Amino acid sequence: MKNIKVGQQEFGKDKLFLIAGPCVVESESIMMKTAEKLKQIAENLNLPFIFKSSYIKDNRSSVDFYPGPGLEEGLKMLEKVKNTFDVPVISDVHQASEVKAAAEVLDIIQIPAYLCMQTSLVTEAAKTQKAINIKHGQFLAPENMIKPVQKIEHFGNHNIMVTERGYTFGYNDLIVDPRSFYELQQTGYPVVFDITHCIRRYGIPSSDPNGGTRQYLGPIARAGVAAGIDGIFIESHPVPCEALCDAASQYPLEELEEFLKPLIEIHNIEKQTRTEF
User: Fold this and answer.
1) How confident is the model at residue 172 (pLDDT cuts 50, 70, 90)?
2) The domain that contains 68 carries what CATH number?
3) Which stretches make up the DAHP synthetase I/KDSA domain (predicted)?
4) 3-state secondary structure the chain
């Protein structure tokens, strides 16, 4: 398996790595408090860490819902987090026209699940030679994720990771099929498991307590790590019920360190016994 390299750090080699942060860029106080705590947690647990927050959420279900501060202000905040805490940052890019500005700040460009097959977006991101995190579309068989990966490789960019976030099953429900971890591993790149998006209940506003099934986060995270993932993607907030996006699924920041400890233990066992197929 290839490792993803960001600056002097490598992700996916031996240690479980962490991608975490608020769903969307909020106030400066929330962002700085969250980043500081997440870096402390990562250092305590010896986890490679990438700070995640979206400068815009372009797929909110209503125009009345907070979409984020936008490209310019959002990137400024992410740059401040990056420089203050010396951590790599990642955010979603929704349009090819955003890529150039985003690449000036972001260490990793994230392709949203809904847009993973958008050739113009994927190739524009690939051309930057930045690390790319491409999320598995809810509509796409996992073995077909090799297609957008090959689009990135076409431009000589092999700094890629692939993220699972659940498959649409029936109406307003997402299912995580463990077989997808195996299929995504066949790309040859690190596999990340986005656990907080896969427990969202679509059709219900994320501010509604019924908009997420947070009680399942522990079981599905442990199952994913045991199945051989390389990184955990978890959105976290100091007060989830007050979050401006995905309030029902973000994990409480103060509880995150204890949540991660058993995942590290499981990952260490899995890596010792992993069989390359």
Assistant:
1) confident
2) 3.20.20.70
3) 11-267
4) CCCEEECCEEECCCCCEEEEECCECCCHHHHHHHHHHHHHHHHHHCCCEEEECECCCCCCCCCCCCCCCCHHHHHHHHHHHHHHHCCCEEEECCCHHHHHHHHCCCCEEEECHHHCCCHHHHHHHHHCCCEEEEECCCCCCHHHHHHHHHHHHCCCCCCEEEEECCEECCCCCEECCCHHHHHHHCCCCCEEEECCCCCECCCCCCCCHHHECHHHHHHHHHHHHHCCCCEEEEEEECCHHHCCCCCCCCEEHHHHHHHHHHHHHHHHHHHHHCCCC
